[in-house]
Target: GS catalytic domain-containing protein
Amino acid sequence: MKKNMNKPFRDGKEEWIQFDSTPYCSSSAFDAASPILREITSALHSMAIPVEQLHAEAGKGQFELVLGHTICAKAADSLVYTRETIRSIARKHDLLATFIPKYTLDDLGSGCHVHLSLWQNGQNVFMASDETSKYGISTLGEEFMAGVLHHLPSILPFVAPLPISYDRLQPNTWSGAYLFWGNENREAPLRASSPPGTPGGFASNFEFKSFDGSANPYLGLTAIIAAGIDGLRRHLSLPEPVDTDLNPRNLQRLPKSLSESLESLHKAEFLDEFFGDKLLIAIKAIRKAEIDHYLENKEAYKQLIHRY
Model:
């Protein structure tokens, strides 16, 4: 997702104003932004990065761009190129495109949702092969997804790496604030997905919603895959999905802050194999420094729109 903003000055202080205030999927938002969006799409296609969907989102000045699926390492590359392309073209139009997870508390945040499927010999092996599967997911897919769900609190520092990331991960904001999964449940941090063309009753992939635009895509995707591999090794099982209205009393709250998720990361020994001691020590130290910095500088988060 992105937000386009223009910048006036008030009383000598920098102040950012959202590009527009139109609602979700508004056609008028496209009327105003179409020259920019057309240029972005054309530039991405010229780099062989397919754009599958592009629409106005629910936040002010916010648009969602969906990239075509590809292998994990290439997907991370494409995400980096896409962000740089969007920001560059926005600057050309005297705008700022930012992927910051939360800029103002009264507006919706911006996420970077990840859809994952498992492939072998050209076949999607996440999806069940017949109707005997309880959730339309293969045993392999269930174990992988169960590992990601089980380790979600401990991998949050990789996918939601800033203190303000947790301002986005709030109840009733479609971002996933509780530890559960669902079938097409928009409040779930993990949800089984059956896009058009998928046989009825089957899930072709699952969506991971905690990822945001401040995350390093290489580290974030590695953490997700590591959690899934641990699920495969331990043959973890998915709990029952939650597809009804949420009852928070029956659900575990995900970490409410970077400090809490960092505590979970300290207990996650399974990550040592995938990251190594030195890199993990560095990541933990940087997260701790981020926490300390924003505790001491309450307004520092506003400058993050220039970084992310």
Notes: The chain has two domains: 1-98, 109-308. The two ends are 12 Å apart (CA to CA). The first helix runs from residue 27 to 46.
